[in-house]
Specification:
It is built from ten helices and eleven strands. With 282 residues, the chain is an alpha+beta fold. The chain has two domains: 120 residues, 3-Layer(aba) Sandwich (Aminopeptidase), CATH 3.40.630; 153 residues, Alpha-Beta Plaits, CATH 3.30.70. The two termini are 23 Å apart.
């Protein structure tokens, strides 16, 4: 598969935060890395009728889950985030807080939950325990439990950095686990000074008057990361209507009643058709 330029999903939503000028439309110029791993928790098998002082891997795994859930990685102000905040033209006090690692946490606690989750994920490496398998029979103390964790990394992070964070999170339990990397795909991004960026900005203004495009980092994963690794400039972008409030939109992914409205389909289709005509005509 070869291409000079690529447009994939997401982008084009309106943030529910006051900004100077017209609407600001985020273009996904990059995405977080994916480090999916299995944390294998080790114990000692035994008879479940005598649980006193046993080395139960399931009990240890429960504490491992709790420590990962409680872990608070530091806020990091990377280049894409800084460019987003600066181009959004937020009120000065909000912009300062969004660029201050110490003030960011307090600010995010006061934002609507959907917005807070997305902005927090943009500035933190995230750890989410999602699947656990362990035990073989009710009357057997389990000696191994496999915990699957979805970890999304910020720009510049490697697998070694993630393992160092897991060591910090698990503390004295780190020596009781084995970390198996299931997927290790670092974060990547495309530059913004490209003909495709200029085209998207022009076409967007025709469909959404007075709008401007701003860079953003998608916190999930799309095919754009593969295209960038092949040398293509890749953006995630469409146009979403304001029919579904942003806070509701941000909480729908892989959740109940995930959906998109027909007006967003119409806007995105018009955007992509106009982009192809404008870009190829140039």
């Amino acid at each position: 598969m070869r291409a000079d330029y690529c447009i994939t999903e997401f982008g084009g939503m309106r943030f529910p935060i006051p900004t100077a000028g017209g609407p600001k439309l985020p273009v996904m110029v990059g995405e977080k890395g994916t480090y999916w791993c299995t944390i294998r928790v080790h114990g000692t098998p035994g008879h479940a009728s005598m649980p006193l002082r046993t080395d139960n891997a399931l009990v240890t795994a429960a504490e491992v889950v709790k420590r990962i859930a409680d872990f608070q990685p530091k806020t990091e102000i990377h280049d894409v985030w800084r460019a987003f905040v600066e181009r959004m033209q937020f009120p000065e006090d909000m912009a300062e807080a969004l660029l201050d690692p110490d003030a960011f946490q307090q600010l995010s606690e006061n934002l609507p939950v959907g917005l807070a989750r997305m902005l927090s994920a943009c500035t933190h490496t995230t750890f989410a325990p999602t699947i656990m398998h362990g035990g073989m029979k009710t009357n057997v103390i389990p000696d191994t439990v496999d915990l699957q964790v979805d970890i999304r990394t910020l720009p510049g992070y490697s697998g070694d950095d993630v393992r160092a964070q897991l060591k910090e999170a698990l503390g004295d339990l780190f020596d009781k686990v084995t970390i198996i990397a299931d997927s290790d795909s670092p974060s990547n991004a495309s530059k913004m000074d490209t003909p495709l960026w200029d085209t998207l900005r022009k076409v967007s203004r025709a469909l959404v008057p007075d709008s401007d495009t701003v860079p953003f980092l998608i916190v999930g994963a799309t095919d754009a990361r593969f295209m960038r690794n092949l040398g293509a400039v890749s953006y995630g972008y469409g146009l979403l209507s304001e029919r579904i409030p942003f806070d509701e939109f941000a909480q729908m992914f892989h959740g109940d009643n995930e959906r998109v409205d027909q007006e967003s389909l119409r806007l995105s289709t018009e955007l992509w058709k106009a982009t192809a005509m404008e870009f190829l005509a140039g």
